[in-house]
TrEMBL record:
One of its GO terms (cellular component) is cytoplasm. Pfam families: ADK (PF00406). The gene is adk. It comes from Flavobacterium caeni. PANTHER family: NUCLEOTIDE KINASE. Keywords: ATP-binding, Cytoplasm, Kinase, Nucleotide biosynthesis, Nucleotide-binding, Transferase. It is an enzyme of class 2 (transferase). Catalyzes the reversible transfer of the terminal phosphate group between ATP and AMP. Plays an important role in cellular energy homeostasis and in adenine nucleotide metabolism. Monomer. This is Adenylate kinase. AMP binds at residues 32, 37, 58-60, 86-89, 93, 134, 146. InterPro entries: Adenylat/UMP-CMP_kin, Adenylat_kinase_CS, P-loop_NTPase. NCBIfam families: PRK00279.1-3, PRK14527.1, PRK14528.1, PRK14531.1, PRK14532.1.
Amino acid sequence: MINIVLFGKPGAGKGTQAEFLKEKYNLVHLSTGDIFRHNIKNGTELGKTAKAIIDRGDLVPDEITTNMLKDAVDQNPNANGFLFDGYPRTIAQAEALDQILADKNSSNTATIALEADDEILVQRLLERGKTSGRADDQDEEKIRNRYQEYNEKTAPLIDYYTAQGKFHAVNGIGSIAEITERLSNVIDNL
């Protein structure tokens, strides 16, 4: 079983690349963003809570996110592996993911970060916001707040996964095909 954590700031291209990687490696793609949007669209209690938090540009608390992700993993008992997109975002979530996978007699194979300059990413998100309908992609202040949250809470995961020998950085600037090739080279050499 191969389990990949796809890591990077909002707008780095995780969702786009996940579509290619899930097909190529026959992985179940679990995007916390997609899970949240599904709950928001359907007006669930979790969705209402998540929407209020996301609309402020903040991250949803670990416990809510982790329980949602565990349920998604449990719903795929015959998976060949998972591609985690948007999770973990904190050390506590990383530890929880390690436990979720250990309970399945598995582990995180690698964490791959798509790296790109903030200014490029802000422009990507503002462009995406023109068609996505996502309020958090239409306001530069909220985008920058998400990056501050990332730097404070998520960037420490680099050290966490580096200490495990599982962290790999990939240049996230270029054509979609170029970035997919860079990611595939990392995965193929695990």
